[in-house]
């Protein structure tokens, strides 16, 4: 009743400001009211079984705590230990910061929703998640490319390593990563923000993601889906191929060198390649084929927002 009174008052003010009500004005105003109805989104979550949700609550809480504390430990250790003041550990410290932020933007809300009956998120909160998700994903991709470049220079051009990977260069790589993330978000998020959301508000996922949210708009979103494929999908695929080529070149270079120290280099490269495959595979699967309605998408989303940050901690550093 209160909502109907508000609508009546708004329509009365509208007619007072425009004169006598006309058919066109009435239709236009009704459309504006309808398009502004969605104020929150309902998240389906991972499962409808309460027992499974409590188990996932405990599991995700432990993983999140280990991820945050472990990556903080890496950052503090890298900062306080003079022997770790090298380009690779500088990049790893920045990667740890990104992992903490990536895990924190959605995981706490996801953990709380597992024990809530009604899993909702406000409109502004949903698009804040979209902004952070796509920006941080792009930053992490560029940092992984920077780590591959660092290993390429260290192995293929060892005598020029400190000259090429100077303090200026490593800071430049990090700044370029963040600028690329902001550019990536700026190219596609405005399309989603300007979409009219007037009815459906159920997101079949654990958090807001662009392919799923854009499908809820009250208009044809084919162009937006194409933008997602061209931007997020192709970006993920391109970086993934660049990294595979880079590590292939490094491996061929190692084989031509002497066998001294090869085991350590192989173990380092194995760790890097493992993280690359685990991080990029879900991103490529979700964003290169956004038109499909795979039930595994939400589990892949969990993987690269909750599992990947702790895998970076375990594989890269330890």
From TrEMBL:
One Pfam family per UniProt? 7tm_4
Q: Give the location in the cell.
A: Cell membrane; Membrane
Top-rank taxon: Eukaryota
| Record's keyword annotation contains Zinc | no
Query: Keywords in UniProt for this one?
Result: Cell membrane, Disulfide bond, G-protein coupled receptor, Membrane, Olfaction, Receptor, Sensory transduction, Transducer, Transmembrane, Transmembrane helix
Record GO cellular component, one term: plasma membrane
Residue ranges annotated as transmembrane are: 54-76, 88-108, 171-193, 222-253, 265-287, 299-317
Q: Cross-referenced InterPro entries, in alphabetical order? A: GPCR_Rhodpsn, GPCR_Rhodpsn_7TM, Olfact_rcpt, Olfactory_Receptors
Protein name (database record)? Olfactory receptor
Q: Give the organism the record lists.
A: Sciurus carolinensis (Eastern gray squirrel)
What is the protein's major site of localization? membrane
Span of domain G-protein coupled receptors family 1 profile: 70-316
Sequence similarity: Belongs to the G-protein coupled receptor 1 family.
- What does the record say about its membrane topology? Multi-pass membrane protein
Q: Name one GO molecular function term.
A: G protein-coupled receptor activity
């Amino acid at each position: 009743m209160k909502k109907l009174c508000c609508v009546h008052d708004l329509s009365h003010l509208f007619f007072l400001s425009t004169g006598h009500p006309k058919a066109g004005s009435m239709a236009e105003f009704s459309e504006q009211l309808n398009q502004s109805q969605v104020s929150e989104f309902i998240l389906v979550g991972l499962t409808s079984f309460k027992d499974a949700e409590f188990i996932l609550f405990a599991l995700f809480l432990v993983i999140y705590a280990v991820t945050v504390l472990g990556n903080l430990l890496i950052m503090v250790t890298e900062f306080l230990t003079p022997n770790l003041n090298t380009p690779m550990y500088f990049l790893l410290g920045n990667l740890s910061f990104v992992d903490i932020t990536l895990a924190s933007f959605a995981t706490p809300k996801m953990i709380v929703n597992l024990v809530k009956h009604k899993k909702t998120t406000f409109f502004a909160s949903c698009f804040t998640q979209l902004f952070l998700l796509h920006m941080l994903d792009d930053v992490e991709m560029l940092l992984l490319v920077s780590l591959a470049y660092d290993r390429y220079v260290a192995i293929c051009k060892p005598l020029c390593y400190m000259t090429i990977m100077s303090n200026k260069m490593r800071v430049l790589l990090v700044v370029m990563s963040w600028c690329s993330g902001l550019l990536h978000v700026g190219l596609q998020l405005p399309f989603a923000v300007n979409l009219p959301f007037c009815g459906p508000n159920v997101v079949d996922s654990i958090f807001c993601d662009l392919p799923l949210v854009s499908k809820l708009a009250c208009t044809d979103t084919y162009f937006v889906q194409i933008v997602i494929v061209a931007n997020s999908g192709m970006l993920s695929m391109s970086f993934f191929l660049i990294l595979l080529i880079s590590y292939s070149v490094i491996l061929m270079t190692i084989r031509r060198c002497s066998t001294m120290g090869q085991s350590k280099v192989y173990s380092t490269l194995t760790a890097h390649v493992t993280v690359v495959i685990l991080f990029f595979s879900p991103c490529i699967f979700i964003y290169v084929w956004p038109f499909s309605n795979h039930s595994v998408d939400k589990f892949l989303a969990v993987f690269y927002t909750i599992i990947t940050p702790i895998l970076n901690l375990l594989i890269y550093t330890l």
